[in-house]
Amino acid sequence: MSSQTTNDFSIQKVEKSKIASIDFENVKFGSVFTDHMLVCHYKDGKWGQVEIKPYGPMSFEPSINVFHYGQAIFEGMKAYKDTEDKVWLFRPQENWKRFNKSAERLAMPHIDEERFVGGLKALLNLDRDWVQKGEGNSLYIRPFMVGTHPGVVAGPSTEFMFCIILSPARTYYSGKVKVQIAEHYSRAANGGVGSTKCSGNYAGQFYPTKLAQDAGYQQVIWTDDATHTKLEEAGTMNVFFRIGDTLITAPTSERILDGVTRKSLIEIAKSKGINVEVRSIVVQDLLDAHAKGELKEIFGAGTAVTVGQIEGFAYQEKYYELPVVTDEDSYAIQLKKALQGIQQKHIEDTFGWTQSI
Ligand SMILES: *Cc1c(COP(=O)(O)O)cnc(C)c1O
């Protein structure tokens, strides 16, 4: 293995890339990882050197914090390649800032921009062949941090590992989904950790989502924990509703994740002259709009799928189908095309969101 140290990053390359063995046309999301990963350890109150090295297993004592008390946070972002083979990131500082907000809430240390964004760029540069060109292709980026101090004393870890792994992704049109509005379970509560990307949020969501799936729906629309009337998120995505020609999404709060896709779609919609209302929206608003024939679209927004269309929702044992809207008339499709066009660099980025590495 060749080793070198540049700009405080230590880089150890694989002897032989495994890229030739990858069937990029058919990769399953999140199942294949690139040749390298980034690892950085926090100890004695400070971050150590960023190490970029071959992707592979790690070994830890069974007593480390994350296995018992779950100090674990993550981010999700994507890299894209344009027709000139340049690799691009989309608003990476937003993910870095949000990572630090999550870290703070979980009593974990902040990480500096140089290690997070600078380290990511160095890693991507090494694995740039893994970013495939063309419609729908991207490289999914998963930064995460876990408590690594050994010992089962219930308290915050004093040692942490920051890591970035990369996984080639292809977005297929996955079809519209049916959702169930949550009436009992909650994803988040005031004063809780719902606005952070901590791993436990996901673990707590698996069981109610499975119940919804057993009942014939693919996802849950999460409501506020106190009244189960406010419509807040769809699965692991932010959620938008179109009533008449107005696009509505809930304001971010302690229960709602401040999604980069959500805020980008709001800006794109406004720039297209679409009327956007950021306000709380309740189940009764939906039922009323549906009865009047004004409820036209519901869609989720998040990095993994960009925009995920919803075909209908269940509430109190009753299923409500949404009307069929043509692609030309659909806000979901228009906004998805506009956002993906900016990300993939075939639409001019007038917002200044994309950065080449
Ligand atoms: C990550 C996430 C989102 C979407 O955020 P993006 O930055 O758009 O990917 C929405 N809701 C939850 C609960 C999330 O964890």
From TrEMBL:
State the Pfam families in the record.
Aminotran_4 (PF01063)
Q: Which UniProt keywords apply?
A: Amino-acid biosynthesis, Aminotransferase, Branched-chain amino acid biosynthesis, Pyridoxal phosphate, Transferase
Question: Which reaction is this enzyme known to catalyze?
Answer: L-leucine + 2-oxoglutarate = 4-methyl-2-oxopentanoate + L-glutamate; L-valine + 2-oxoglutarate = 3-methyl-2-oxobutanoate + L-glutamate; L-isoleucine + 2-oxoglutarate = (S)-3-methyl-2-oxopentanoate + L-glutamate
**Which principal EC class is assigned to this enzyme?**
transferase
Which SUPFAM superfamilies does the UniProt record give? D-aminoacid aminotransferase-like PLP-dependent enzymes
**Bilayer-crossing regions:** none
User: Which E.C. number(s) belong to this protein?
Assistant: 2.6.1.42
Example of a GO MF term: L-leucine-2-oxoglutarate transaminase activity
Q: In which pathway does it act?
A: Amino-acid biosynthesis; L-isoleucine biosynthesis; L-isoleucine from 2-oxobutanoate: step 4/4; Amino-acid biosynthesis; L-leucine biosynthesis; L-leucine from 3-methyl-2-oxobutanoate: step 4/4; Amino-acid biosynthesis; L-valine biosynthesis; L-valine from pyruvate: step 4/4
Q: Which residues carry this modification: N6-(pyridoxal phosphate)lysine?
A: K197
The highest taxon in the source lineage is Bacteria
Q: Which GO terms describe its biological process?
A: isoleucine biosynthetic process; L-leucine biosynthetic process; L-valine biosynthetic process
* Cofactor requirement: pyridoxal 5'-phosphate
Q: Of which family is this protein a member?
A: Belongs to the class-IV pyridoxal-phosphate-dependent aminotransferase family.
**Per its database record, what is this protein's job?**
Acts on leucine, isoleucine and valine.
Give the protein name, as stated in the record: Branched-chain-amino-acid aminotransferase
The species this protein was found in: Myroides phaeus
